[in-house]
Structure formats: structure tokens, C-alpha cells
Known about the structure:
This protein is of the alpha+beta class and 1496 residues long. The chain contains 49 helices and 37 strands. Mean pLDDT is 74; it is low at 1-72, 103-171, 180-189, 914-1004, 1354-1372 and 1398-1496. The strands form seven sheets. A nine-stranded mixed β-sheet has the order 15-37-36-35-16-28-34-33-29, with helices on both faces. A nine-stranded antiparallel β-sheet has the order 18-17-27-26-25-24-23-22-21, with helices on both faces.
Amino acid sequence: MIGGRRCSEAARRLRRRPDTLELSVLDGQPMETELQEDNERTPATGAENGNESGTEAVEASCSASSKRTRWFQFARSSKNRRKRLRCDEDEEVVQQDRRNSDVEGSRRACLAQPEGMNIGSSTQTIATPLMVGDSFYSLAPGGGNPSANKSDDQELYKQRDPSLVSESKSVPSMRRLSQIRRRRSSYYFSENERRIRANDKEFNAQFKYHNNYIKTSKYSLFTFLPFNLLEQFQRLANFYFLCLLVLQLIPAISSLTPVTTAIPLIGVLTLTAVKDAYDDIQRHISDSQVNNRKSKTLRNGKLVEAKWSEVQVGDVIRLDNNQFVAADTLLLSTSEPNGLCFIETAELDGETNLKAKQCLTETIELGDRHDLLWNFNGEIICERPNNLLNKFDGTLIWRGQRFALDNEKILLRGCVLRNTQWCYGVVVFAGVDTKLMQNSGKTQFKSTGVDRLLNFIIIGIVLFLVSICALFAIGCAIWEGLIGQHFQLYLPWEHIIPKDYIPTGATVIGLLVFFSYAIVLNTVVPISLYVSVEVIRFVQSFLINWDEEMYYPTTNTYAKARTTTLNEELGQIQYIFSDKTGTLTQNIMTFNKCSINGRSYGDVIDLRTGELVEITEALQSVDFSANPHHESDFRWYDRSLLDAVRSDEEHSHVFFRLLALCHTVMAETVDGKLEYQAQSPDEAALVSAARNFGFVFRTRTPNSITIEVMGKTEEYELLNILDFNNVRKRMSVILRRGDSMVLYCKGADNVIYDRLHGGQEDLKARTQDHLNKFAGEGLRTLALAERRLTEQYYNDWRSRQQEAALSMDAREQKLNAIYEEIESEMQLVGVTAIEDKLQDGVPKSIANLQNAGIKIWVLTGDKQETAINIGYSCQLLTDELADVFIVDGNSVEEVEKQLRQFKESIKIYNRFRPGGFDAFDRLNSDSNMDPLSVTMTQTSAFMQETNLPPTPPPPPAISVVTFRWDEKNKDNKGGPDSAECNDLFGDEKGSDDGGTASIVVDENTGFALVVNGHSLVHCLSPELENKFLDIASQCKAVICCRVTPLQKALVVELIKRAKNAVTLAIGDGANDVSMIKAAHIGVGISGQEGLQAVLSSDYSIAQFRYLERLLLVHGRWSYYRMCKFLRYFFYKNFAFTLCHCWYSLFCGFSAQTVFDPMFISVYNLFYTSLPVLALGVFEQDVSDKNSLEFPRLYTPGLKSELFNIREFIYSVLHGAFTSLVLFLIPYGVYKDGVSANGFIVSDHMTLGAVVATILIVDNTAQISLYTSYWTVVNHVTIWGSLVWYFVLDYFYNYVIGGPYVGSLTQAMKDLTFWVTMLITVMALVAPVLAYKFYLLDVHPSLSDKIRQKSLKKIHSRASSDVRRTASSRRGRRSVRSGYAFAHQEGFGRLITSGKIMHKLPQDFAFPLGLGTKKTQVLHNNLNSVDGPNSKTNNVTGQHMVNNNTNMRQNQNQNHSSMADITADGRGHGGDDGRGSGGSDDMSPRAPCQDLDTINL
């Protein structure tokens, strides 16, 4: 072998003899002889020299080696032996290749497919004999009889080298040999492989494989308390308050009782613990439900029912139809012929179409016989657990032979068995080792951006607190050293203070005062802040759960907040990552419309008005009950098609006959009812439509198809199936009935159009118009064609096809050419349009979310065509896009080249659009113009004002940008809301007296990016991820198709890391779990694919459309409320706490408090907690209706505008100003004050009571100004808290007997108190009112204007300027291809081989000419058939749509929109414009029509 290591003759000899340890056990020969011989042999040593050196080594080893040393020598020599064996195997492979080339001629004569051929692209299963010396794990024949095994072992050893094994062996020696063989596996166990022996628990137990028990919970009953407390004290705030509590326990430094901190801290810890316990209990319940599912397991030869958690690796289990697979299982036998079974993998990849699996032909004989299955002792050597869903490598060793294992023989956990009565398999991976769990991802601790900002602010506040305390400590030390020492008689020092040396005593006092002020000023961030935050989030979660607008009556499902800590994060989402199948769609395919011979069917027209009637559930459908085989759930509303079929109209009969014959569907009768088993939902929908219209597919054999046409049976001979693949994009069948022979073909419209004969221009043009209409409505289209063949032509083609099939040189290329030859000169039959039904309200929701500024990415496991088609259906992609980039490179170099080309296209687009970068430069340089006031409209016209300077001719597919010269947005400071504001209230200022240019950009123009899964691997690599992000961030939408669950999570992590953006992932299947866990917010849809996504999510909803309300209403409200709560909370606490700072200037920095200690304790708990809680729970600036109608109200949350460092500093400064006014005015009034009765009122207690009362009144006034939405709860809490203050103060002082008794009562009897309170409150409220009126009048926000609109009862709004509606997609035309077909290659070969058939006819023969893969077809764009007359002209502009020309294959064609405009006489630039549009040096783009995909 080239590059390999040559093996010596000694190594080959070693290969042919038994293991040394075994021989030593069998006949007592010294083990050391062979071991030392292995160590001494060299590659150059011959057989004789090896024997001599071995003899010498025996003497040396026997005299110097201990028993322990011999075991290590045995292990080391065995390792060397394995290396030599691998070399020998390599040379044997080379020799085998040479032998294969010698017999190549004989192999060419074999035309039939091998019996071991698997489905689709799988390789042939080859069973090779396994020599006993091949592996130490080889199985002796007749494993069921131990005595037979012993004799067989002896005979094998004798045959291999009789001189080494004696004739008689003792029974104990054989038993010892069996024990060694069982232990030996651990000695040779590789970390890169996994060894499993079926029905052998003792063997498998030594490897300590995971069982099938699943655990997602975090705590147990005993670990909850310590682990939860440890987790909570890892939070900075909790640890901070714990330290304060410890300080308050020291009497020398604490002026406050520890109760003030202990009670709130215990309350926070208890509340959080209860919430965590509840969440973990829910996880325990879900784990129990999964682990207690029942599975039939083979135990001791009998089938018993066991729990999923009791299933072990190596167990043989039985699966019944429609049952979930309990663990990753190697398929052994099935109820279907040839070992086939069908599974649905919706839980894994989101696809609902059936996939076929096939077991080894050698294990089919096991059937459902429990004795044979229990005696099955095959050993499986396979890969380690990994997350690759589409890959499995392994080997089965059974009956002395090796069998290759691949992914086609593995059933993965989470799949569902379909259309198969039963199957048996041996468990390979269980529990956390299964591929489903390997793709689930790790549960991450999630916190909101507000939490992270709070943690940062707390660190800043602590530093501020330390600096203030240090400053006051220094001030106290200085004051005590200069003044305080002289007043020790009046203010004695504590006994711990040294009095001998004054500076030392003053320093100690200053040090103690430092900690005293730390306790006094800790109310800047009281622990009640976290209590309030948790309470607000908890109540907000219930508001989400109770929202009737998010209730789905079909499944009786409400929205549910599964976590209570992330509500405000819903108002800051920047990226949404969505699954497609089951999330955007309903997993339902329906035959919606069609075009036959140039006539469109499917639309319902009102005969009175001639207008189209909207199809709803209320509209009566066509009655098919006259057809005995009709399906009750089939809906069709255009009766003209049924009338045409019943009147024997020729073209309609050809159309439906093609649908009934050209497919790979299997038919079976269940309980007297005909049922179809389809490999793809598209084919099922088409065959079902033909069935309801009277063309019933009945049955098939490998060489015939039987249909029933209007009650009459027709049987066709199936000559060939030219199978579908992702390159050909079409499939064909060649049929014979009587003397006529016909080829039926269906596929992508551009592929079929290129293969039609001439003279059909009118039919092609009319059908193309229908195709554009169907594609514009988001329907999946297929074109149908036929060709009549003659016997002579077919026989000639058949012979050449056989010759190409037997060719060993360029076979695929030759077959492709042969297929191209017969699939030409076809007659166009018609077009089908299938609707992959979207969930209700998906287009509207996506439009609103995009208008809110949220970017939406679709990550799906579906094929590229399907994903793009759904993108157009839900209006994530539109025909107004400048271009759709498709990344489908197979290598890093190809992907990098494509990304570089796309980036160049974006640069050209930005350079040549009207105004280019200069307009934005002028816009940003204008000091009076806000850069965000770029208004977005929905025009698609290209216009140039005459007063603009001439611009260079634009490139193809140029987007639309227009200029307006006015001051419409000049003074608007509302940011992104300005567009809606101006559209709502009109232009109040004239447009003639302004000189500022505002740019109107079409929100539908721009780019979209489509990435295939194999290309995404390279895009996520470190060298390309920045380029990929650069392109993706400039695209309006991104679709990633054929992605694995792990790739979904990697994409989310990339955006989180590189963009520092808030992400949301939404899905409904187990394949979305890793993505949901990786995102900041995970939303699960309780759909048809189970509850795995819901159990891993933070929020669950029943339909995708509810995501719009969850974000734009509840998310925005939660963020708005939390931000307002925090701003007010920090204001009131700084206003309260900093009063101590101002008072310290007058009390010698002694840490004396202004207020009563009881007031300090209950200020945040009783006096101000309820009003601010009501604010955080019920506050709203606009109604939910307005929140949905004006999605750009969501924009401030994207930029964290409502609470950030700037807003925090503003609240701190406002609180500092309030505290200063609050303290100085009463201090100035009451200093040296005397009452009317002559009493002195300048005492400390009176001042503290007055300042406290004014503080409560000011808090009430401020929160009244903060509140925008008044409810009964707000009134009760705000005014009730004010009354509650006086009640509690009276109760505490007069009933309990507080130290401040009588202070407030005496102060309130004096007019001075009331005047002082009025002046102070007015001084504090007046600036706030002035600032609010200024903002409302000069810089109103969008919410301000909406409230004004509500007050003025203005109910007018140009909705088209704000969002698109779902109805706008109906009736429009699109020149893109609507082709999408969820079919896979392989079923055609499976049918014609007969493997899928239950019964085979006697005259069965394998037909030739089956389709192959890897066919490269060049497609020509057919948009030119529309002609200039098909374009829609408009005075104000012309739609500039991307013609989706395959620029990579046909760059000389000129399809630019600019050229079209010029040709119509409406553009500028004349011939130069056309030349620019068709230039060859322009950057190539990936069009929508080039939908090449790769089968992973």
C-alpha cells in the first residue's frame, strides 16, 4: 500500500496463529515465550530468525519477570500486534483491489442490481468472512451451545497451526479461556469506538454506558436547600446585603437594627427559592412522563413491557406502528418485505415526509421469532456518541462475518414508526448518548439586559457608597480631633476608643463611622428593589398567561410564561430565529390551483360582478360524493374543472392521468379503504387530487401501474422510471398501454420549458403568466409535460441506455445525456400549484415584526426550494427585493468567493442607487436633521427629480430610492417613529421653504440571503464568519436550509457573540431545542411535533401569530414598565438617602440619621412600595391595539433607550436635587424657629418628622406625574399610601410608644409646616412639569402623538405606509420560479427493484434506465417569452423586480430592470443604460431560480 508500512513475514505469521494467552491457558505453554518473541521481532527478521530469538527470549523472561510484569508485557505486545495487523489488512485491501480488476470483465455482465443494495444513495452491503484471528472479539459459530463452542475453538486452532495446540484440552482450561475472552475487550477498548454485544448485559456493563434515563431537573429533595442558597448568594446583590446584615449585628458600628435588612433578605431568598422549586418540580414531572413511557423489551427470551428508563444498551426492543423510538436502535427485522420500514423524523429535522430504513438482509430472517432474536449475539463496533444526525459508521460482527452499518440501518430516538406493523432492533445509544439528546444543547442561565445593567449599576453605586463613606470617615476623624475631643463630657467616646492619644482615638472613630455610614446609606440600593422586581415579573407572567387574545380554541391552549425572569427582554428582541415546518407552516399540503392547456383553474369568480371571490371556510366547496373513492377532507372550489373532467375534455384527462401515473406513491388497502404511502407530501397531494377528480391510483408492481379512470380500470406497463434528484429537478416515467407508448414528466418549470418542442409559444406564454401568478401567491409549482414515443425510437434509446448503464467510464455523464435525449421535444400539459399551508396570520405577523425593526432568520432542515418558497409565502422574501443571494459552495474557497461576489454586488447597489452615499452624507451632516428620520415607504418605482444632478446609469436590479425636499422630519426627535408620525398627522410645515433632503427608502427593497447547510459549516468557520456576518447584517432576511439542530444553535451563538444582540428562537420540535436553549429567549409552539420544544422553552404559544402580540404588546409593556419602575425607584431612594449626607454636614459626620429608625426600616416596605409596584404592573403608554397598529413603538427597546446609564444618572441627579431641596428648605425654616405659642421647634425630631412627611408627599406627587395609565389599583395604592403614612406614624408613636411621639402632631398644628410643605413640593414638581411639557410640545415621541390622536378621536391612518397586509400578496405577479418539491432520490429505484413490494409477479424483470444522481443541467431563463407587453407601466414608476436570471450560467443575457425601463422609453440613459445593464464585468448574483440543493 502506498505510503503504508511494510509488514514482515513474522507479522503475517503472527496473524495466522491464535492468541498467546489463549494457548497458554489451553495447553500450558509458557506465555512469556510468545510475548518476548513479539517484542524481539523486527520487520527484517525472517521466520527462522524469529524462532531462534524467541527461544532465547524465553530463558531471559522466565528468570527475570514477575507475574505483574508479564501482564503489562502482554498488553504492550498486543498493542504492537494490532499495529502490525492493520498493516497486513492494508496490503490485503490492495491485493483485493488487484483481484477485482482482474475479474472486471465478468462483473460487467451482471446487469441486475445487487440484492444488498440499500435505498437511495446508500452503498451496497457486503458481508465478508471474518477469520478467527482477525479480531479478539470474533464470535465462535453456534453461540447458543457452549459445548459446541469449545470444540469449535479447538478445531479452529488445530486447523490453523496443529503444532501449537495439543489434542486434549481440559474443561477448566476452556472455562479460563472464556473468562479471558470476556475480559479481553476492556484491554483493547479504544476511546474512538463503542463496542456492544446484543443480549449480553454482563459484557456491556463493563463499559458503563449510560442507561435510557433522562434527567433535566437541577435539584433533589436533599440538595435543593444548599445548592439553591449557594446559587442565590453567587448573585452580587444578595451577597452584598448579607455582608450588610453581618455589619448590622455589630452594635458598635450599627445605628439600625438588623431586622431592617434580615426580613427583606429572607423574603427575597424565600421567594426566589419557591420559584426555583416550582420550576424544578415541573422539570421533574416532564422527566417522569418521558422515563415512564412503555417499551417492549426482550428479556430471557420473552417480550416484556418495560419503562423507557429501564432500557439498556444491547437490549433488543420491539416497536409497533405509530410508536416513538425509545433509543437509537440498529434495525434487525421488520414486518415489511426486504427489511424495510418507514419513519417520520419531524422531531429531529422538522420534515413530515416519510423516510425509508432497511435492515441487513442477513438479519431479516430473525423476523419476530423471540427465540432467534434472544439468541442473536452479534457484536457492534461503532462510533462514539455524537450529534451528527445524518451519519453513522459501524460494523456488525456475527456468525464469523463482518457487515457494514450506516445511517440507513439506524432508527434514532424521537422518530415515529409509520406504515410498518412492527420492527425489532438492538439499542446502540441510550439516554444522553442518543443523537437527539446530543443535539439538545446545555441549559444556560439566562438573564435580561436590565439585570446585567443593574449589576453594573450596583457595582458603581457600591463604589460611590465606599467613596462617600470614606469621605465622611475622614471628615469625622478631623472633626473629632479638632472639636469632638473637647465635648467628651457631653458626647463621651466609646470604651473601645483609646483616649490616651487623641489622633489615634479620632482615627478609630473615623474607621467605625465608615461602617456606620455604609449601613445608613445602604438604602440607596435597598433589598426591596429585588423583591419588587421579582414581584413585578411574577405578575407580568400571569398577565401573559391570562391574555385571551393569545388563546387558541382549536387545541384549548393558552400562552404560558414558563419563566418569570425574562419578561422585559421580550421588549428588546433584535433577532428572531424561526423554524419553518410546524412553526410557520401547518405541515399540510393542499392542491390549490392548476393550469391546463393555458387555462387557469382554482379561482372562484362572481358571475354578477366578474370579480374574484375570496376563498374562506364559509364558501361552499365542490361536491365529490359521486366518486366512491373521494376523500371527505379534500376541498376544491372551482366547479369548472370538475365539469371539464366529466365532459371528457381531452386536456384535463391527460393532466390528471399524468398525476395518477407519474409518481412513486405506494397504495394499500386498510380496513377496506384505499390509503396512500408517499415519500413526500407533495406527491401525496397530487395523487390525492387526481383520485378525487376520478383518476384513482389503485396498485403497482415493479413493472406495471393500475389506475381507475371514471370507474374503468386501466393498466400500464412500467418500462422505466427516470428518478428525481436535486440536480435534474424532474422525474419521468415511460409507460406502454397497448400499442401506444408515452413519457410523462413533471418538474421545475424552467427545466420543463427548456425541453418543450417548438410551436407552443402562445401556450407557454399563457402558462408562464399563470406560473407567475401562482408564485406570487406563494404556491409550490410543478410543470407537467408528455411525449409520445414510437416503438422503434424507444428500442433504439433503450439499447443505448443499457450501453451507457454498463459503461465503466463516465457512466453518470453518459446516462445524463441519454436522459436528456428522451426528455426533450415534449408537449406542455399544464402546471400544478400546491399550497404548503401557512399558519393563520403569519405574513401579517412577520411584516409587523420587521417594521418594528426586528430581523427574522429562518433556520430549517428542509430543502432549499421549499425554504425559499415558504419565504415568499410568508412575505419574508418579496419580489421587490433587489436580489436573493444563494450560498451553496462545497468548499471554503467556493463559499469565500460567493461571499466576496455578494459583497461587491451590495457595494454596486449602494453606489449606483439615486443619491448613493452622498445623500446619506448630506443627511448626517445636517445638524438640524436626525439621522434616524429616514422614512420607509412601500413604493417600488424608480424616479429621478429633475432638479437632481445626473447620476451614472444604475446596475441591474437597482433598488428604489426617491428624494423629497422638505423639512418634514426636521424637528422630529422621535427617532424611528418619525415616519409613522408624519403619515399619521400630516406635514404641518410647508415643503417649499425647506432645504433638507429626506430619503425615502423602500422597505421591501434590499437583499436576502439563502445559505445551505453544507455551506453554513464554512460560513461559521473563524476565517469566514466575519464576512458572512457582514453580508447577513446588510440583508433584509436570511434563510438557512438543510441545517442540523446543532448548526441552528451555532448560528444563534454567533449573532449573540458578534453582534451583541438580543435573540429569540422559536420552534416546535425537538430539532429546535438546542436553538431555543442558546437564544436569550426561547419560545416553543405546542404543535404537532410533540412538546420537546415547549418543555425547553421560556414561553410557549399555540400559533406563530401570537408571537407578534407577545413581543409588541407584552414585551414592550414589560420593558416600558420595568424601565419606568427603575427610574422612579432610584429617584425616590436617592432622594431619601442623600438627606443623610446633607445632614452630616451639620452633625459632625457622626452617622446620625435624619429620620426615625423605624421610618428608615419601613420606608421602602410600607410607604412607597405599593405605588411603584402598581406602576410596574399596570402602566402602559398606549393601548394594546395601538401597540400592534404602530409596530415602531417597539424601536426604543431595541436600543435600550428607556433605561440606560444616561437615564440612571438623570434619576440620580434628580434624586440628589430633590434631597437637597427637601432638606435645606425645612432646615432653613425650622432652624432657630419658634412656634406661635413660644415653643422652640428647632429640635432634631421635629425636623426629621417634617422632612419625612414632605418626602412622602413629594413621592406621591412625582409618581402621579409618572403614571400615564390610571386604574383603580393605581388610585388605591398612590392615595392609600399617603394616608397609610399618617396612620402608621400615629400608631407607632402613640400606640407602641416611639421616640418621636408628638413631633409630627405638634408640627402639623403650626401653619409653618403647611406652608413649608407647599413651597417645597412646588419647588420639586415645577421643574418636572416644565420639562415634560417641553418634550411634549417640541419633541413629542410616537406614543405622545398616538395619545393625542386618541384624545382627539382621530381615526385615520395610512396603513400601507406602516405595514403590509396579508391580502396584498394575492393577485400579484412574480417572474420567479415557484418550484418546490420535497422529494428525494431513490424511491424510483426502490420500486423498480421490487424491494418495496409485498408480492412480485412471476414474469418480474429489472427494468433498465433508472435515474442517477450528480447530473449537471444548464437551465435557460424563459422570462423573455413574456415580452415587453407583459410589463406593467406606471407614470410614477415601474416595479423593479429581480428577473432571477441564472447569471452564473448565462451572463450574456440582458435582463436588468434598468434595461427594461429604457426599452419602454421610460428610463434615462438610452443605449448606455442598456450597455451597463448587460455588462459582463458586473458582480454575479445568485438568483432565486437557480435552486440547486445538496442531499446531506
